[in-house]
Amino acid sequence: MTKIIKILGTGCPKCQAMIGVVKDVVTENNIDATIEKVEDIMEIMKYNVMITPALVIDDVIAIKGRVPSKDEVLGLLN
């Protein structure tokens, strides 16, 4: 089943770092996932997130306000 991963953020360095970590984990572990970058502030507000970056997996907020480690992302996706 394909995971839907959304990275909420306006494009700050932390947001860019989170995208890199998530893409690496998905690629390195052959995880079936789509990664979507959400930069629209109105879309971000729908998730009630006040601090970015935020990682949303299958519409559940998993992490907000920090860049996770690869191991942490892998754990969340498994």
UniProtKB/TrEMBL annotation:
Residue ranges annotated for the Thioredoxin-like fold domain, each copy included: 5-77
Residues at the active site: C12, C15
The entry's keywords: Disulfide bond, Redox-active center
Pfam families listed in its UniProt record: Thioredoxin_3
Record keyword Disulfide bond present: yes
Disulfide bonds: C12-C15
KW Disulfide bond (keyword) present: yes
Domain of life of the native organism: Bacteria
PANTHER family to which the protein is assigned, alphabetical: THIOREDOXIN
Protein name per the record: Thioredoxin family protein
Organism for this UniProt entry: Bizionia saleffrena
